[in-house]
Amino acid sequence: MTGRAVADSFQERVEEYLGRSGQRARGVRVVPLTGDASDRRYFRLISPEGQTMVLAAYPAAFDDSLPFLNVTRLLDQMPVPVPDILDEAPDLGLLLLEDLGDVTLQAHLGLASSEEHGKLYREAVRLIAALQHRGAQLASDIYLPYGIAFDEAKLGWEMEFFLKHYLLGYRGVELDEATLAAIRIELRLMVERLAAEPRVLCHRDYHSRNLMLHKQRLYLIDYQDARLGPDTYDLASLLRDSYVDLSDSTVNWLLAYFLALSGRPEAEAEFRERFDLMSLQRNLKALGTFGYQTTAKQNPVYIQYMPRTLRYVRNNLARYRAFGRLHDLLAAHVDELR
Predict the structure, then answer these.
(1) 246-289 pLDDT, tens per residue?
(2) pTM for this predicted structure
(3) Domains of the chain as residue ranges with CATH
(4) At 26, is the secondary structure helix, strand, or coil?
(5) Separation CA 141–CA 139 (nearest Å)
(6) Which of 69, 186, 288, 306 is found 20 to 30 A from 51 (Cα to Cα)?
(7) Is the torsion defined by CA of 223, 229, 234, 236 positive or negative?
């Protein structure tokens, strides 16, 4: 299906929904919203009185097993704010959601004072602690996240994604078989360590673009891929965010804050090493995503976030002797890692 045909399909289904739900008769206006890297589309519905809602359009019809619906039912049982689901049209592939506005944590940080900046990040860390604590209490196979995990297969696939779409694809690096095999060995060692860690409930993409500031608090979005993984996974996404710079002192303080919230007896140095390992894997995966969006999807917007992500990778590779071999192998082909 061509891009134009896909757009027409979304528009036709939205128009059908507006008609049968009575929204069109009420004079509701429809404004397309900027999409993300997914195959979903979003539209804002604006009533004549100025009330707004968001219509999420999926590529096809769905049923009650739709991951977004399943995970929302789980998160609704926690003290974790998520958008309300106002209406469903499964046959049209549409969900009507509470409108959280347009202000992401990333967008707000440029306007926030240092005091408010710290307050918001403490709130974001508290939400991670709540996800993990309540997630353990609510564990059940009726919820999709408890049946999938960041295991060796998933984490390994992500590292292959980095190699294919960033190193070989975007950077155009040509590697002989021996060098490629050596890189894979180092990445596999990292993956094995991470996969062996005890697992908690993870949002899976917990960064400043997936936290909305609404009614003076943070709301989670884009959580449909939640799964089990290391307790450092969401922290790495938040504190080694490709879209935001945080000082080392801020990161250190927030990690200590998380440990205090969680009541962990673990030493900060040990936890920090696990956090850095998770951050390294997470940032390499992000580079793969950015490379894929740029080369395969012809979407260059993510190029601007590569330098910050590469800096995170370089710093972590240089910080630990165990990463020395991987550093040498990658830095030989990526100047920014030297």
Answers:
(1) 999 999 999 999 999 988 777 889 999 999 999 999 999 999 99
(2) 0.94
(3) 3-98 (3.30.200.20), 105-337 (3.90.1200.10)
(4) coil
(5) 7
(6) 69
(7) negative
